[in-house]
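Take the subject:
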Amino acid sequence: QVQLVESGGGLVQAGGSLRLSCAVSGRTFSRYVMGWFRQAPGKEREFVATISWQGGITDYADFVKGRFTISRDNAKNMVYLQMNSLTPEDTAMYYCAADASNSNLPSRGSMAYDYWGQGTQVTVSS
């Protein structure tokens, strides 16, 4: 069973930064495509960023390009989301997800991901 645990969320002022972390159990982490999604109150869960097995391919939602960076450390079974220039519109629960299908094709679709964490809350004040 693969478990994901997010951390690093919190309250930050607009313009500030946060770094989210996701610890992943499992012996084959280096063969999981990893993704970050978010869900704001009253809204659908939406794609934020994704990264391939070795980090060579990344993809971002248009609304975070240039502000957020996804990265991973396969030696530590960790994936990160560095978030800069935060705005109140970034307020949401952020979820880490793992695609364990043995496909190295990063996907924006939530259905591609097999395992999900419980989420970490990010709140950006104006």
In short: The mean pLDDT is 96. The two ends are 40 Å apart (CA to CA).
